[in-house]
Amino acid sequence: MNIVVCMKPVPDPRRWGTLTLDARTMLLRREEVPAVINPLDRNAIEQAVAMRAGGTVTVLSMAPPDAEEQLAEALAMGCDRAILLSDSAFAGADSLATARALAAAIRRIGDVDLVFCGAYSLDGSTSQVGPQVAELLGVPDLTHVTALGLDGGTLRARSATEGGETLYECDLPAVVTFDKEVNVPRLPSMTGIMRAASAGVTRWTAADVGLAPAEAGLAGSPTQMQNTFTPAAARKGEMLEGSPARMAAALVEKLKGSRVIE
Amino acid sequence: MDFTLPREVRLVRRSVREFAEETVAPLVERMEERDEFPAELVRAMGEIGVLGLITPPEHGGSNLGHLARMVAVEEVSRVSAAAGISLQVHHMATAALSDFGSDAQKQKYLPPLCRGDWLGTCAITEPTGGSDLLGMASTARPVADGYVLNGRKCFITNCHLSDAVVTVAKTGEGPKGISAFVVEKGTPGFSAGRHEHKLGLRGADTGELVFRDCRVPRENLLGNEGEGMAVALRTIGEVGRPGMAGTSLGILQACYDESVRFAKERTLYGRPIAQLQAIQWSVAEIFAELQASRWLCYHAAWLKDSGADCGVETTLAKMYTSEAAVKAAQKAIEIHGACGTMMEYAVQRLFRDAMVCVSAGGTTEIGKLVVARAALA
Ligand SMILES: Cc1cc2nc3c(=O)[nH]c(=O)nc-3n(C[C@H](O)[C@H](O)[C@@H](O)COP(=O)(O)OP(=O)(O)OC[C@H]3O[C@@H](n4cnc5c(N)ncnc54)[C@H](O)[C@@H]3O)c2cc1C
Ligand SMILES: Cc1cc2nc3c(=O)[nH]c(=O)nc-3n(C[C@H](O)[C@H](O)[C@H](O)COP(=O)(O)OP(=O)(O)OC[C@H]3O[C@@H](n4cnc5c(N)ncnc54)[C@H](O)[C@@H]3O)c2cc1C
């Protein structure tokens, strides 16, 4: 089973208290806070390492050069190979341009049975990258998966929905995105860290994965952020008075009036 | 000069910190209460691989080196110095076996010691005084196919739980009359004696080991006959002392963390006490001791990794850091006011733990003797 895990470095949530926003560009000052592997991507790595069965697990990231640190950690968790898409042409990518770069890299890796992602990143949190990669590769995708197994050549997945669960069956190759319930990710062991030290990280540019400058980064991004702000939310309260029964009846009338209940 | 820690060491820190917070921290209360080392922690430390940090891969370790080991001991000790000392003394056994063991000994003992199937220790100190190595009374009498050991070791870490014990006894007189052995749990005539109850490092298993006409086969001689002094001095000086330095460094870091947290949370006169200059000075003093100790420790470990002589630097790091931890713990308790003396707060434990680290691995006075010899050379 050859598996590619897409891994995004995100600012360490334990240090979010010290994160600030650049007032001019409205972007996070990421350099102020150390990066960590996006937590759900740890689940994706765990799943891949457990399911590899003689195959190869490649961890793939589109990120600045510092991401080698998180890729080394992924290697220490048991991934066999690490690829960093690093090129100034990738800067400013929205989720589609990100997915396009990842999909191009996955095509170049070739012979891939499964692509694993986190269900969402801690910072951007659009949940779009996994499904977009699937679409670009023309393969099915299963999202928010909480349990995954392989039965012959068929993938069986479970994902939680509001008040229930959905069970899926799906052929390979496929893209799967995980929620944290799927497993408990291992910590890198000392022997894993030793192996990672000799494995090293491969770097690819946009040209290496066959992307033209217009398809990558900001230039290849249909969404461009205009502004970031906290919407002003005003809440209105209304006090009901009288006996409990009278207040309950008044509440029901009000809820019906505003069509919250029928 | 580049003071950046290598990537492997940064990864070790991150992984061991998480391990300590997730796996060791929940055990601390039980260790304090029962004063017993949790056996399951041996297996857990084997799984994450910290037991084999200074053992070559061919014998089941990762060989990430002494700087990585220093950081690992520091991170474990930041959460539990009792777990830290247990880990570091285990490393003394693996190091003595790697440095002086025969191929057969390495193959037999190191893999289970790295996996956490076995725990190890290094038993040198006797009731005749830890500082006076040559004054030891234990004997190893040569017989046809080995030796017969008689004697008593005291204040030994991992005492009751160890499966393999590196120890020394007299096979003759003077410095050349001491030999080293590896003795397995269950060997007839070998037993663990009293379990000590200590002021601090509660939950680290400390006690006596007793040899009573204990027959040890010849293949368990570690190094050559008469080489025991070299085994003891090298293992204490290059592994045990930096190990205690790392244990104290973890305590110091915890003193700093707890002090900063409390100073920011506790409000007096309508503002956090961190805004009082007297508190700021105390925090600054703890921080200064932490930084000075940290670089002494890392430098000593780096020297060891580079293959250079490091005995003076490891002793200096041990002496300075263990004393600094006591001072920092006292300051940390003062910053906490009465809360600092309450059992619910960690700082009282840090103080007790720091006190016990001062003599373990060699006292400050012995440290000064070693350092003075170099300083006056
Ligand atoms: C405040 C803010 C607002 C934004 N608004 C928009 C917007 O409106 N529209 C838009 O398109 N983009 C937007 N972005 C950018 C977008 O979040 C990221 O640029 C995009 O690269 C990744 O999307 P995500 O983090 O939401 O990933 P998600 O889709 O949430 O991530 C899911 C998984 O995809 C994989 N993955 C994601 N990124 C990478 C990567 N770089 N390398 C490897 N694997 C990866 C990981 O497995 C991850 O767990 C915004 C960013 C910020 C900070
Ligand atoms: C928690 C703990 C764990 C330990 N674990 C181990 C272990 O695993 N294995 C092991 O072998 N040992 C272990 N020890 C023993 C430790 O190494 C000894 O306690 C230490 O070497 C000091 O020996 P001592 O306690 O017998 O003190 P003594 O040697 O009796 O010293 C008493 C006092 O005299 C001072 N003194 C001695 N000689 C001189 C001198 N020449 N000049 C000036 N002052 C001097 C000392 O500094 C001290 O203040 C442990 C100790 C502790 C507390």
Identify the notable features of this structure and list them briefly.
heterodimer; A: 262 residues; alpha/beta; Rossmann fold; 9-stranded mixed beta sheet; two-stranded antiparallel ribbon; 6 helices; 11 strands; globular; B: 377 residues; alpha+beta; Butyryl-Coa Dehydrogenase, subunit A, domain 1; Butyryl-CoA Dehydrogenase, subunit A, domain 2; Butyryl-CoA Dehydrogenase, subunit A, domain 3; 4-stranded mixed beta sheet; 11 helices; binds flavin-adenine dinucleotide
Explain how this protein is built:
The complex is a heterodimer of chains A (262) and B (377). Chain A is of the alpha/beta class and 262 residues long. Chain A has one domain: 3-Layer(aba) Sandwich (Rossmann fold), CATH 3.40.50.620. Chain A has helices at residues 39-51, 68-76, 95-109, 129-137, 190-199, 244-257; strands at 3-6, 9-11, 35-37, 57-62, 81-85, 114-118, 141-151, 154-161, 164-171, 174-178, 201-204. A nine-stranded mixed β-sheet of chain A has the order 9-8-7-10-6-1-4-5-11, sandwiched between helices. In chain A, strands 2-3 form a two-stranded antiparallel ribbon. In chain A, β7 (141-151) and β8 (154-161) form a beta hairpin. With 377 residues, chain B is α+β, with helices and mostly antiparallel strands. Chain B folds into three domains: 7-119, Butyryl-Coa Dehydrogenase, subunit A, domain 1 (Orthogonal Bundle); 122-225, Butyryl-CoA Dehydrogenase, subunit A, domain 2; 230-376, Butyryl-CoA Dehydrogenase, subunit A, domain 3. Chain B contains eleven helices and ten strands. Chain B has helices at 7-24, 28-34, 40-48, 66-79, 81-100, 103-115, 228-265, 277-306, 311-335, 346-359, 364-375; strands at 120-123, 139-143, 146-157, 164-170, 178-184, 190-195, 206-217, 221-222, 267-268, 271-272. In chain B, α1 runs parallel beside α4. The mean pLDDT of chain B is 97. Classes of the chains: A alpha/beta (262), B alpha+beta (377). Chains A and B meet through α2 and α5 of A and α1 of B. One flavin-adenine dinucleotide is lined by residues 6-8, 38, 40-41, 60-63, 93-95, 98, 102, 117-118, 120-121, 123-130, 223, 225, 228 of chain A.
